[in-house]
């Protein structure tokens, strides 16, 4: 029986619950497993090392874990594909993806900026033996070579919230796999695989976990890429801890409720920020004046999301003054938690990127990114307003 997303978020990780005699997926903390039948254990190890999703004997916790498998089953269901592979962080997931590309005999990535600063730095550093061509979203086709193994986009983009047309990129990529980092959107607001993408990646630390207490990454894809990713995970040890998998399963149950509540808050805050005299520009998909951006939003997302950014009149000093004046909103990196977080990307999450690249792609020194939580929106606005007014005083721009 086909089920709707809200139902799958609650039940997708519970497959086999009745037969297994449990209600909540059990936490399997074993690092090793008894192998009374040596030949069966050897066969299991061979299957897992080859990239199989499971075997009759898990053998060792780095090869397979039942709690993590429950989370992966749920993510594959939510993204509409056969497989998902979880990792100890979003960066571990991206690292495994680049190494899996090398297993496929390719070494070139075509990527569209902006992306998360850590992703940008990893791709640009060539640490994992990859080459990267940074292009605009309409120039993907021209950048592809015989050695291109992946096209990588992030939409909505971190931290400017710029949207990338997934279907257009897929059409340009042809047979080259397209990976979409959909962390900001979550499966609630965007389904990249239905638009032709090959893989969808999440920093599950963010909205999927949702409470600021677990580090994780996950890639949802087909069987061939999943096998490669599992092989890399086994070799590099970038595994997700079972307790983390348990927290992610719990987070999935409330994901839709949290996203919709935070999105409602974000919309109202974006509108009010746009009217404040210290704010030069608000970056939020639903408020983008570009007809092209509005078209993409209406075609590939079901909402504008829970993250916004705003640029100030003045410089980085004004931005830092706003942060220093906040009393409720937490100054911190990361996003997707139930509480509201704010940070200056040029000074933190994107500090490791080349300043010229940041300027070119709109990551200004006076840009602030806000991950909106589920608090009462009037309390959030009161906090922002008093901090903005205080920072605006020296410029004569107080409301």
Low-confidence stretches: none
**Total discrete domains:** 2
Assign the CATH architecture of the largest domain.
3-Layer(aba) Sandwich
- Gap between N and C termini: 55 Å
CATH superfamily of the largest domain: Type I PLP-dependent aspartate aminotransferase-like (Major domain)
Please state the average pLDDT score: 94
Rg calc: 22 Å
Based on DSSP secondary structure assignment, what is the total number of beta strands? 12
- Output the structural class: alpha/beta
Strand order of the largest sheet: 1-7-6-5-4-2-3
Classify the fold: give the CATH topology of the largest domain: Aspartate Aminotransferase, domain 2
Main sheet characteristics: 7 strands, mixed
Strand content: 5-15%
What does it look like?
The strands form 2 sheets. Strands 1-7-6-5-4-2-3 form a 7-stranded mixed sheet, sandwiched between helices. It has a 5-stranded mixed sheet with strand order 8-9-12-11-10, with helices on one face. It starts with a helix and ends in a 7-residue tail after the last helix. It is α/β, with parallel strands linked by helices and 399 residues long. It is built from 16 helices and 12 strands. It folds into 2 domains: 5-28 and 65-253, Aspartate Aminotransferase, domain 2 (3-Layer(aba) Sandwich); 256-395, Aspartate Aminotransferase, domain 1, CATH 3.90.1150.10. The mean pLDDT is 94. Helix 5 (90-103) packs across helix 10, helix 12 (255-274) packs parallel to helix 16 (377-392) and helix 14 crosses helix 16 (377-392).
């Amino acid at each position: 029986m086909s089920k709707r997303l809200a139902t799958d978020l609650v039940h997708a990780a519970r497959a086999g619950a009745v037969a297994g005699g449990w209600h909540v997926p059990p936490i399997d903390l074993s690092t090793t497993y008894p192998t009374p039948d040596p030949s069966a254990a050897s066969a299991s190890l061979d299957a897992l090392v080859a990239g199989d999703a499971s075997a009759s004997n898990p053998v060792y916790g780095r090869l397979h874990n039942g709690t993590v498998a429950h989370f992966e089953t749920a993510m594959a269901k939510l993204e509409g594909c056969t497989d998902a592979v979880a990792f100890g962080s979003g960066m571990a997931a991206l690292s495994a993806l680049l190494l899996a590309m090398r297993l496929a005999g390719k070494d070139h990535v075509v990527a569209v900026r902006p992306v998360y600063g850590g992703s940008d730095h990893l791709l640009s550093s060539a640490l994992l033996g990859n080459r990267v061509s940074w292009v605009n979203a309409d120039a993907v086709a021209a950048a592809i070579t015989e050695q291109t193994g992946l096209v990588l986009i992030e939409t909505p983009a971190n931290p400017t919230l710029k949207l990338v047309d997934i279907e257009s990129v897929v059409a340009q990529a042809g047979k080259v796999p397209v990976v979409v980092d959909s962390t900001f959107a979550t499966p609630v607001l965007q389904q990249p695989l239905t638009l032709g993408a090959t893989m969808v990646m999440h920093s599950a630390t963010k909205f999927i976990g949702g409470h600021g207490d677990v580090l994780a990454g996950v890639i949802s894809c087909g069987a061939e890429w999943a096998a490669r990713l599992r092989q890399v995970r086994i070799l590099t040890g970038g595994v997700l801890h079972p307790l983390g998998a348990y927290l992610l399963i719990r987070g999935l149950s409330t994901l839709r409720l949290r996203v919709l509540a935070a999105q409602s808050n974000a919309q109202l805050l974006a509108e009010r920020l746009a009217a404040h005299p210290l704010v030069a520009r608000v970056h939020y998909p639903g408020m983008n004046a570009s007809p092209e951006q509005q078209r993409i939003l209406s075609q590939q997302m079901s909402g504008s999301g829970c993250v916004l950014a705003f640029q100030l009149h003045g410089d980085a000093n004004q931005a830092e003054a706003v942060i220093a004046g906040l009393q409720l909103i937490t100054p911190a990196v990361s996003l997707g938690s139930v509480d509201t977080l704010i940070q200056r990307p040029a000074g933190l999450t994107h500090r490791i990127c080349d300043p010229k690249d940041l300027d070119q792609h709109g990551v200004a020194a006076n840009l602030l990114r806000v991950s909106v939580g589920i608090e009462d929106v009037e309390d959030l606005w009161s906090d922002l307003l008093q901090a903005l007014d205080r920072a605006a005083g020296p410029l004569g721009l107080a409301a």
